[in-house]
């Protein structure tokens, strides 16, 4: 992504549309009060509980940490929330993201989803923002899930002008007994690679590295550093701890990482469970690829997660599934990436 000057995104005030007689045609701005969040969570539970069980705490954390949020809702004539949409705009890129759109099953095919989508698109277009389905960070979904409900949603969005391209995966790895394979250890010794944690005095070096090679991850690294999670930034250096920085990734362990993070929200026992963790933003300098450093970095991270008591490890938004498969990760769930072109 190319960086741009910061953009101030005006947030429309409620109500954002005129008030017709039918309450299902009324779009209301949504404030994140506890009462409102409980209502939205009840709708989530109705729509997604079977496949995507989620705690209220995680649901609230994602909604309340979206950047430049604009959330809207539809209520029935009894005041029950029956439709909801949440967006964020990544200000540095003026990137609009439709993080969530859901409609109660009893109120589908009544125009509720269409009106919610249209209001969000109007807001994005009035600010000149790009538009994608799902969100980057924080997020519920990075795109539209490839399950039965998600396939219905994909048809809904395609009919309204969205285009879909890549399929990406969330992956799961069992690290409860993980040991770094001997051949990977030997390769890293041959390549003279050192793995360890970032330290506070190396923060700017880390940011410079991300800016040069992975500018789209810079804000995430900065966010986690601001939270004080230095222990979760693993790095690769050439030769030793003072060598050239050539790779990095971010770890996450519930109960050990900052409680303000939303890296892994699928901790229900039917999904990843409480003894779970994960990694993200795995990157190696372009001139150093082909030396096995990425595989070594992931293997080192797997070992670190095991030592922290993690059983199941989570890696999301993956295109290179074969790469992670080499360290015993398997495909879990997939999504299609969608956007307005």
Number of strands: 13
Average pLDDT metric: 93
Based on the coordinates given, report the CATH architecture of the largest domain. 3-Layer(aba) Sandwich
CATH class of the largest domain: Alpha Beta
Please indicate the percent range of residues in DSSP E strands (runs of 2 or more). 25-35%
Fraction of helical residues: 25-40%
Distance between the termini: 16 Å
- pLDDT under 50 segments (min length 5)? 1-15
| Tally of distinct domains | 2
Structural class: alpha+beta
> What string gives the helices and strands in order?
EHHEEEHEEHEHEHHEEEHEHE
Give the oligomer, counting copies of the same chain as homo and different chains as hetero.
Answer: single chain
Helix count?
9
Largest sheet, if any? 13 strands, mixed
Q: What overall form do the CA principal axes indicate?
A: elongated
For the record, what is the CATH homologous superfamily label of the largest domain?
A: Gcn5-related N-acetyltransferase (GNAT)
Radius of gyration, taken over Cα atoms and rounded to an integer in Å: 21 Å
The CATH topology of the largest domain is what? Aminopeptidase
Written overview of the protein:
The chain is an alpha+beta fold and 341 residues long. The protein folds into 2 domains: 23-140, Aminopeptidase, CATH 3.40.630; 171-334, 3-Layer(aba) Sandwich (Aminopeptidase). The protein is 30% helix and 27% strand. It is built from 9 helices and 13 strands. The chain has helices at 34-48, 56-65, 112-126, 148-159, 182-191, 203-213, 218-226, 293-307, 321-325, and strands at residues 28-29, 70-75, 81-90, 95-103, 130-133, 144-145, 162-174, 193-197, 233-238, 245-252, 276-284, 312-318, 329-340. Strands 1, 2, 3, 4, 5, 6, 7, 8, 9, 10, 11, 12 and 13 form a 13-stranded mixed sheet that branches. Strand 9 and strand 10 (245-252) form a beta hairpin. The longest helix is centred in the N-terminal third of the chain and has 15 residues, at 34-48. It is elongated and about 75 Å long. The two termini are 16 Å apart. This is N-acetyltransferase domain-containing protein. It comes from Choanephora cucurbitarum. GO terms for molecular function: acyltransferase activity, transferring groups other than amino-acyl groups. InterPro entries: Acyl_CoA_acyltransferase (IPR016181), GNAT_dom (IPR000182). Residues 27-185 form the N-acetyltransferase domain.
């Amino acid at each position: 992504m190319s960086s741009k000057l910061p953009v101030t995104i005006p947030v429309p005030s409620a109500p954002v549309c005129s008030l017709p007689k039918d309450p299902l045609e009324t779009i209301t701005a949504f404030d994140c009060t506890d009462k409102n969040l409980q209502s939205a969570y009840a709708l989530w539970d109705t729509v997604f509980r079977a496949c995507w069980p989620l705690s209220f705490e995680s649901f609230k954390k994602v909604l309340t940490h979206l950047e430049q949020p604009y959330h809207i809702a539809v209520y029935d004539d009894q005041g029950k929330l029956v439709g909801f949409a949440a967006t964020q705009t990544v200000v540095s890129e003026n990137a609009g993201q439709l993080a969530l759109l859901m409609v109660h099953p009893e109120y589908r095919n009544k125009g509720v989803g269409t009106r919610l989508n249209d209001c969000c698109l109007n807001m994005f277009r009035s600010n000149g923002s790009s538009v994608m389905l799902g969100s980057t960070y924080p997020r519920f979904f990075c795109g539209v899930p490839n399950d039965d409900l998600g396939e219905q949603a994909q048809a809904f969005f395609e009919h309204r002008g969205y285009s879909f391209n890549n399929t990406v995966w969330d992956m799961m790895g069992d690290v409860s007994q993980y040991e770094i394979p001997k051949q990977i250890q030997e390769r890293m010794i041959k390549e003279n690679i050192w793995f360890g944690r970032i330290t506070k005095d190396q923060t700017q070096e880390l940011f410079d590295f991300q800016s040069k090679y992975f500018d789209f991850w810079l804000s995430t690294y900065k966010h986690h550093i601001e939270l004080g999670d230095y222990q979760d930034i693993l790095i690769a250096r050439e030769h030793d701890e003072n060598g050239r920085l050539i790779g990095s990734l971010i770890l996450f362990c519930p109960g050990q990482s900052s409680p303000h993070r939303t890296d892994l929200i699928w901790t229900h026992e039917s999904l990843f469970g409480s003894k779970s963790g994960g990694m993200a933003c795995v990157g190696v300098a372009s001139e150093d690829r082909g030396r096995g450093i990425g595989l070594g970095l992931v293997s080192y991270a797997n070992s670190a997660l095991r030592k922290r008591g993690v059983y199941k490890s989570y890696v999301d938004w993956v295109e290179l599934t074969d790469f992670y498969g080499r360290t015993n990760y398997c495909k879990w769930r997939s999504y299609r990436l969608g956007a307005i072109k």
